[in-house]
Every structure is written in C-alpha cells, then in structure tokens.
Design goal:
Length: 435
C-alpha cells in the first residue's frame, strides 16, 4: 500500500516570488538602493518580531493596524502568566522598530541619521489586488532633522525614483497636521460636527468619533464623502509656526518644479504624524492607488522613551510600485547564461565540466548540461537557457582536443554565425573576441 500526502500551499495573501518574476524585484531593489545612496542613506535591518507594545504605542491604539491587522501571539503557554512583554507582533511597518533601534543604540549621539529599511511586513487584511498579508515596504527615515528642507528632500528623492522607473501618472497629495495643541482644538470642533451628523456615520466612524475623530475623515465609505468634505478643516486651526513650515514646504516644491495637490482630508493611518504629511497616488492601480505615504513624526522618539528628535520619513509599498514600473517596461529579463555545454559520453562530460570552470574563471555565465540526454534535447535546453553559444563535446572532440562552437543568437548584423571547430585551448580567447 502506498501512502499519499496532501499538498501544502502558501498562506492566503502571502505570495511566492518565483524565478521568472524575481529579476524584477532585484532590479527594483538595485535602483532604489543606488538612488538612496545618492541621498546619503544607509541601510538598517531590524527584527521582524518586536514586542506588541512597541507598535501599540508607536502606531497608536486606535488605528486600523493596531485594532485589527497585526499578527500577534505569545510563546508563553501559561495564560495566567502572560505579561505584556510576552506578547509579540510581526512588524506591520518599519518606522516604530527603526526608532526603537535608534533609541536603544543611541544612534543619533553624534549627528542626525539617514536610514532606510526594506523587506517584508505583515498585516492581517482581506487579500485582494494590491493588498496582501505579507508585503514589502521601503521605509526611509531622516532622523534628527527639523526643517521643511528635509520634508522636501525626501519628496524629491521619491520624484527621482518615479523618473528612474519611467512613471508619470502619479501625483503628490499634501497636508499639514499641525501640532498636538492645534489638533486638540480642531478635535473639539470636529467631534461637535460629527455629533450633528451622527446619522451619516458608519459603524467604524461611530466607534472612532471620540477616540480618533481625525481618522473618521480618512474614510473610504462613499456614503460619507460629502459629510467628510464639509467637516471643519484642521488647516483652519493651524498656528503661525505650523503655517510657516507648510508654506516653506510648498515654496520649495514649487521651486523644484514638483506639482502637488493640497488635500485637507489627508490624515494618514498612523498616529505619529505631525506637520507635513503626504501621499503619492496613482489612478493606474484601481482601488489600491496609494503607492507611498509619509510625513513628519517629531513626537515618536519621546513616545518610545527617547529624547525629543524631529524626524521625517515615508513607507512605500513595493508590490504596488513594481506593478506600476512593470507596466512601463522598466525591467529587462536577465541574460541568465552565456555559454551552454552540450556533451556526450563520460570523457566528454568530464572535459565539459573542466572547460566550464575555465569559462567561469574568465567571467562568463556557464551552464553544463546535467546528466545524459540526446544532442537534440540538450540543444533545446541550451536554447531555453538563453545562452549565446552552445559548446559541443563528443567522442571525436575529446580525441582531437577540440570543441564545436555553435552560435545560438543573431550577431549585430542580424545573421547567426555558422558552427565551427576550435582547439579547446583557444576557447576562452574565441569567446572573448565575440564579447
Ligand atoms: P491603505 O490606505 O492602502 O491601507 P496604508 O495607509 O495602510 O494604505 P501605510 O501604512 O502608509 O499604508 O503603508 C505604506 C504603503 O504600503 C502604502 O502606501 C501601500 O503602498 C503599501 N501597503 C499598505 N498596506 C498594504 C498591503 N496590505 N498590501 C500591499 N501593500 C500595502
Ligand atoms: Mg491600510
């Protein structure tokens, strides 16, 4: 009796990135890394798992992420003994962890720090196009900078990234959230307004109208748009300093030739923002059109037990960015193989393996046909590999110390060179001449 086993599949909302797609990821990451280094950013890598309370405090209790999207668990099996430090969460974003690390290692001791993190983050949302449970973010954090100049610099960095990837249908939306005392005043007016419009609020909004009324304005519910549009605007409650900061951001953007739209309802989904907030949005991705969101988070260091440290940064969804860039033809499939060795017989197989190593010493990408098969099917594989040449070794070639070189691709004049013979000792030279 033979036993049968069930297949095991990946978790819903968590995608495999297969070899025929991964080259796009590698190219996107390379473009991003080289651009970040132009702006002086260094990589930081923090753990995927952090204490739950880091995110609860850092992101805010009354946010989508903390209320319903975090993967949280404990390894402590004794329910009575679970204390808050035992609760662990898979990072739903990077900023809280990066700031935690900066405080823990006193990273800003000597000077401000420009750091970026890139990798997987986890949110338990309903999977759909552009929305997954494991996805990738680039998170850029300029820590220890207070001026509007840095707000604009990171926006320019993003504009440069769009240019590098050939994106044009992407717009910048901007708002100013002011400071907490300004928000407090606006909050009272907003709650009064929401109370007057209680009948047009959905369940989420009713639940949040006292705990986080600003987030009610962030609603995607079409029935609530008119109500939200007419609500008191935070903008009208800003003091001189906040207004001056925002005006300086706008002026510098205009000088740099970056168009923007002021969106008074843009509040962002995380609690830690103040002053400048922004999103880059496109209509090319359907409902999930926000590619990148960011802004100032001057209060986060203190909230997490550090010294007051003004910061500005953004989080960018790589799946959404990759889809946009791919549609613009930003990626080119890699030439995986230059040379493919085709061989027949034990001696030829050994010779092919040795010559292949010599070709690799010379810098070529080389595949040797593995196992034995007829020449015909080996040539088929050679072709599939994308190689420019098949190097053929059979009994005769072994005896005479030669190889047959079979060019597989058109040369610059559009024709394919005929197959020819060459001494094994000359192979490297012959390939180099055709580089
Ligand atoms: P959304 O309003 O789409 O839920 P968000 O405000 O939750 O976005 P952020 O927390 O600002 O998003 O994350 C930054 C970026 O990460 C988003 O602009 C988006 O590109 C991407 N992103 C967020 N959630 C997901 C997800 N579940 N799957 C794929 N990408 C996502
Ligand atoms: Mg979200």
């Amino acid at each position: 009796m033979s036993k049968t086993f069930n297949k095991v599949n990946a978790i819903r909302g968590m995608n495999d990135i297969l070899p025929n797609e991964s080259y796009k990821w590698e190219q996107l990451e390379a473009t991003i890394k080289s651009l970040l280094s132009q702006y002086g950013y260094q990589n930081i890598r923090t753990p995927i798992l952090e204490q739950t309370r880091l995110f609860a405090r850092g992101i805010g209790e009354v946010t989508d992420i903390v209320e319903k999207e975090m993967y949280t668990f404990t390894m402590n099996k004794d329910a009575d003994k679970v204390d808050p430090e035992d609760m662990l969460t898979m990072r739903p974003e990077f900023t809280a962890g990066v700031v935690r690390a900066a405080i823990q290692h006193n990273l800003l001791y000597e000077r401000p720090v420009r750091a970026y993190a890139m990798g997987q983050v986890f949110r338990h949302e309903r999977p759909q196009k552009g929305r997954y449970r494991q996805f990738h973010q680039l998170s850029v954090e300029a820590m220890g900078f207070d001026g509007p100049d840095m707000d604009v610099e990171i926006i320019l960095l993003l504009a440069r990234l769009w240019r590098a990837l050939g994106l044009n249908n992407i717009r910048l939306e901007l708002n100013c959230l002011g400071q907490s005392d300004e928000r407090a005043e606006h909050r009272e007016a907003l709650i009064a307004y929401l109370e007057q419009h209680i009948d047009s609020l959905d369940e989420d909004a009713k639940r949040r109208m006292y705990s986080n009324p600003l987030r009610v304005l962030d609603t995607k519910n079409p029935d609530m748009q008119e109500m939200a549009d007419n609500a008191p605007k935070l903008f009208d409650y800003l003091g001189e300093a906040s207004k001056a900061h925002f005006d300086a951001v706008c002026e510098r953007l205009e000088q740099a030739g970056i168009g923007y739209i002021i969106n008074p309802r843009l509040v962002r989904g995380l609690d830690y923002y103040n002053l400048t907030v922004f999103e880059w949005v496109t209509d090319d991705l359907g409902a999930q059109g926000t590619v990148c969101g960011g802004g100032r988070y001057d209060g986060l260091f203190e909230l997490l037990g550090g010294k007051p440290t003004p910061c500005v940064g953004f989080g960018l969804g790589l799946e959404r960015l990759l889809e946009l860039a791919d549609a613009q033809g930003a990626f080119t499939p890699l030439q995986e193989t230059d040379v493919y060795f085709v061989h027949q017989g034990e001696e030829a197989s050994k010779k092919a393996a040795l010559l292949a190593e010599q070709c690799r010493d010379a810098g070529w990408k080389v595949m040797v046909h593995a196992g034995s098969a007829g020449f015909k099917s080996q040539f088929k594989r050679a072709d599939l590999s994308g190689a420019r040449w098949a190097i053929v070794i059979g009994e005769k070639e072994v005896e005479q110390g030669i190889v047959a070189v079979k060019p597989l691709r058109e040369s610059e004049n559009g024709s394919i060179e005929n197959q020819f013979e060459a001494a094994q000792a000359d192979l490297i030279q012959i390939l180099a001449e055709r580089k």
